[in-house]
């Protein structure tokens, strides 16, 4: 068997191993009986505010996605809403980052936007999320007694995400003269790179960037409110900034490479509460409660979202070949520059 054929099974095996390792870390030193007793005490009256916050955060996500792609194609918030629900369900349910791949393909088919353009917009959305996580974590570390375990991660995120935004702005800015066919500017004009940069190009608009950042902050603060409601329903009383910190730490954990996203989120949510002095049983109950509130409704609503988008199995299967990509404006400039030499 060739190395190319071994690559995918190897990634799957490594991903399963990482997820199982995180599950072991999640459950070690925990008495499941204590966790069950804590969950049994949950106050079901909190389900109403939890549901309201749950749908509000998805509506905010739909508005943000509409703004992220408005330079590519005009999309209504109503059309973006089921796409966001389906995307969240796919990201939570599928391992190895396959949810993002699936949603790029589905969105390309249903919204008529190029896959590489969507990949660029998706990358910028992740960078904006990371920047807000870094700010939330910095505020929490400065105001709570957390210890040094998360300081390095917070510092890395606080430096890396603004650098990512700055890089996206630099590579997507307009240049008056035609690019050379040789060098990094020629690479940026490559037909496989230029569409990706076009997806990132919303960063050139101060209005789009500001709106996306404000909406991103609102989305994750509403998630912190969701975490607070889960804790309150379990009888866990914590400073609201604790939930802000857990949102940042847990969602960074959801991005652990190759791991199943919900496993990483649960692991970091538990570790964050333990770092703040909660018992292992209470911390795991909190993590399980947060996971259930975030994942189960999304999974249950995913079929309705797929029906609303009129999806079929064919929409999830990429089509290769069948046409020659049209030359981009930037590549035409390169050709004209070469012809003039």
Detail the topology: elements first, then pairings.
Blueprint: H1 3-27, H2 32-40, H3 47-68, H4 77-93, H5 98-111, H6 115-143, H7 151-172, H8 184-188, H9 194-200, H10 206-233, H11 240-253, H12 261-275, H13 280-308, H14 329-340
Helix pairs in contact: 1-12, 2-13, 3-4, 3-10, 4-5, 4-13, 5-6, 6-7, 6-9, 6-10, 6-11, 10-11, 10-13, 11-12, 12-13
Descriptive key words:
341 residues; mainly alpha; 14 helices; 73% helix; globular; disordered C terminus
- β-sheet strand percentage: under 5%
Q: How much is the radius of gyration in Å?
A: 22 Å
Tell me, briefly, the overall form: globular
Question: How many distinct helices?
Answer: 14
Q: Span from first to last CA?
A: 48 Å
Q: Into which percent range does the helicity of residues fall?
A: over 70%
Biggest pleated-sheet summary: none
> How many beta strands in the DSSP annotation?
0
Order of helices and strands: HHHHHHHHHHHHHH
Structural class: mainly alpha
- The whole-number mean of residue pLDDT values reads 74
Poorly predicted runs are: 256-261, 321-341
**Oligomer kind:** single chain
């Amino acid at each position: 068997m060739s190395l190319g054929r071994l690559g995918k099974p190897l990634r799957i095996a490594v991903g399963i191993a990482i997820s199982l390792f995180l599950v072991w870390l999640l459950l070690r030193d925990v008495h499941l009986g204590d966790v069950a007793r804590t969950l049994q005490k949950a106050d079901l009256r909190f389900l109403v505010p939890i549901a309201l916050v749950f749908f509000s955060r998805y509506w905010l996500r739909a508005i943000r996605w509409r703004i992220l792609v408005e330079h590519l194609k005009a999309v209504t918030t109503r059309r973006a809403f089921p796409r966001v629900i389906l995307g969240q369900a796919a990201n939570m349910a599928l391992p190895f980052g396959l949810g993002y791949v699936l949603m790029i393909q589905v969105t390309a088919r249903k919204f008529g936007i190029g896959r590489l353009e969507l990949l660029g917009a998706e990358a910028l959305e992740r960078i904006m999320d990371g920047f807000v996580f870094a700010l939330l974590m910095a505020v929490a570390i400065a105001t709570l007694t957390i210890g040094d375990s998360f300081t390095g991660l917070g510092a890395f995120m606080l430096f890396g995400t603004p650098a990512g935004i700055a890089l996206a702005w630099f590579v997507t800015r307009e240049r008056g003269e035609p690019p050379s066919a040789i060098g990094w500017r020629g690479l940026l004009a490559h037909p496989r790179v230029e569409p990706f940069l076009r997806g990132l190009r919303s960063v050139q608009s101060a209005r789009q960037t500001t709106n996306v950042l404000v909406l991103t902050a609102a989305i994750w603060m509403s998630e912190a409110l969701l975490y607070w409601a889960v804790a309150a329903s379990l009888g866990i009383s914590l400073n609201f900034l604790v939930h802000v910190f857990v949102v940042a730490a847990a969602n960074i954990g959801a991005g652990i490479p190759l791991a199943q996203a919900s496993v990483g989120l649960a692991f970091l949510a538990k570790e964050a509460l333990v770092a703040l002095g909660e018992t292992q049983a209470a911390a795991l109950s909190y993590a399980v409660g947060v996971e259930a509130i975030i994942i189960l409704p999304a999974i249950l609503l995913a079929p309705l979202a797929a029906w609303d988008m009129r999806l079929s199995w064919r929409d999830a299967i990429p089509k290769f070949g069948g046409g020659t990509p049209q030359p981009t404006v930037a590549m035409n400039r390169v050709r004209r520059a070469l012809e003039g030499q």
